């Protein structure tokens, strides 16, 4: 099997350090992985660039729930993108859709201009558009570097057929990066079935948080009421196992 580029979805400096140790070449830097990945802090980006040799693609996503943003959110995203590029990000990750779910090319173009010569990634917003191949053509016209997709299914292995079709349709004009639900059990098969040259995944484990042990009934989040006595961090051993499977 050809050598596969490994991109890890990282939610912190700790995750980035572990991703590099596992053998990743690139990370997508986020906050709030539980929400699918939101804009990280500038401090996290700076430290990851200082302490690793990884290529760092920085998420620009101000909130969860869709990709049709208010003007204020759009202005915030442009400012975040500028700050990240100015502080060493190797590229930015974003997605803009209209209210009907079609591509908002104008806003994508605005982020591409801010990225200048750095990489641009259109993330899994493509998994909810009505016509993914037409959208792929539009992203090629915009000069987007790559698109992250699960093939319009809950996981990339389930969407392998469309991912393979996107690879053929792109004809090398845009990179296709499968992500979502990739594990050591399906990673190798996904690469073989789709013909991709890179994969994107997160491998997490739970770590105890001891400071709240005296009053575990207190919650700091919203309606989901997550456990406050533990948090998720990258799983070094699992990342290594997945990487070994595809390489």
TrEMBL record:
Keyword Kinase among UniProt keywords: no
Keyword Cytoplasm belongs to the record: yes
Superkingdom per UniProt: Bacteria
Keywords: Cytoplasm
Localization (cell): Cytoplasm
Gene Ontology MF, one: copper ion binding
Matching InterPro entries: CutC-like, CutC-like_dom_sf
Gene3D superfamilies in UniProt: Copper homeostasis (CutC) domain
Gene Ontology CC terms, in alphabetical order: cytoplasm
CDD domains: Aldolase_Class_I (cd00945)
UniProt family annotation: Belongs to the CutC family.
Protein name: PF03932 family protein CutC
